[in-house]
Amino acid sequence: MSDEEHHFESSDAGASKTYPQQAGNIRKGGHIVIKGRPCKVVEVSTSKTGKHGHAKCHFVAIDIFTAKKLEDIVPSSHNCDVPHVNRIDYQLIDISEDGFVSLLTDSGGTKDDLKLPTDDSLSALMKSGFEEGKDVVVSVMSSMGEEQICAVKEVGGGKSSLCFGFISLLVKMETESNPILRKTELKSYSHKHFHSTNALEILRESVRILRYNLGAFMLTAAVLICPVSAVLLPNFLVDHSLVNKLTVKLLLVAKSSGLPLQPFVKHSCQKFAETAVSSAMCFPLFVTVSLLSKTAVVYSVDATYSREKVEINKFLVALKKLWKRVVYTYLWVCILIVGCFTFFCVLLVSICSSFSVLGFSPDFNVYGAILVGLAFSIVFANAIIVCNTAVVISVLEDVSGAGALARASDLIKGQVQVGLLIFLGSTLGLAFVEGLFDHRVKKVSYGDGSSRLWEGPLLVVMYSFVTLIDSMMSAVFYFSCRVYYSMEASSVGEAQPIMMDTVEVVDT
Fold this sequence. Notes:
Layout: E1 7-8, E2 18-22, E3 31-34, E4 37-46, E5 56-63, E6 69-75, E7 79-83, E8 85-95, E9 100-104, E10 110-115, H1 120-131, E11 135-143, E12 146-156, H2 162-175, H3 199-212, H4 214-232, H5 240-256, H6 263-281, H7 283-305, H8 312-357, H9 362-396, H10 401-411, H11 416-442, H12 452-491
Antiparallel strand pairs: 1-12, 2-7, 3-4, 4-5, 5-6, 8-9, 8-11, 9-10, 11-12
Pfam family, one: IF5A-like_N
Keywords: Hypusine, Membrane, Protein biosynthesis, Transmembrane, Transmembrane helix
Domain Translation initiation factor 5A C-terminal: 84-153
């Protein structure tokens, strides 16, 4: 093996590459340093004690990296250097044209400084398994600052770590230098095994996907998400006179139902009016550009999992076939959200009016309204989770409208707590950026306002990024729920195939 085929990694200062051991205690199968090389002992013979009183050990060993045979004779009472030899397993995720391999580390990063082993049988096994799309796990041996692939531990169709399995597909897609021969339809979803009961893991997975398909997601954010954010944050489309009129009407309703017009009640009515008017005025924007951005994000996540590069022409062809059902589902989502708010208003007015008729004080009505609001916030959060999942389903499955909502509500069973944490994190992130924009750009809480020139665009970009991550997490959450759904069905003996009619893309 030539020097060029050895690959070194730096060690921490002061870290020892060897440790001493008495020659008489080194046995066959152990390790020893001979002529500065780490070796595995294949034969040991000890001579009888001579006239000087020292028995000698004759070692025959094989260099663990070059397979070269080396020999040494050492007095049995003397110490020999024994190398520290470590083995670490990695998931193979790519093989480049120049023979270098890309391996997935436990931390989710990549190790790209090793070449294929010089052993032809090992190299052939790795190449064949990789080309067939199997999970290939290799064992890397390191010693004395040198490392090399020494074994292929496992070649199987998804028998290794599920998380590693799908992440390898992501990194493979990003690192491939040659164009991928794209099939005429999206591949099956059988290799998407990601499942997590931790919202933080779903966030990490979303960031990994963003990293490995950065171009597609950044293009979506720049072209579709940022323009919407630039309109929503300053409330350009909101008619403030209409907001004031609706706020007055809500205050009158609150007063007639027995609620005291405290600052908290006034602020709540004003925010509710702003939300209602903003949603109504921006609805054309939501149902076109915003919905298109969500569709593009879901499509990109799916393409990443399917080991395919996102191509605009392919997306446009697919969009023609799925856009109607996505819009139809979104209309049902709007109906559900409006229904939830309507039910909340009716329930709140009814309860407060009942308390007022029964003679309770106005302050008691406020506490009752707060409790009703807290209960509604939980119900509303669950409704948003169902709605977001339904939009993802309408993109990836041949289901739309009320059917997509029903499918989503059934799919997220057992995973609601994860969805709630995702919704909470996204809501807090968006609210934080909105608060900064309100105080730093709209009101200019301090300074002469010159910072608006750069703070406004910066906050728009921040808002767009949070929106992008939220859409990506919804898509990843969907895949996680699918795996959980399949596992639950299998555990009770109901392993029914999940309907996954993919979007057919016809070559033109």
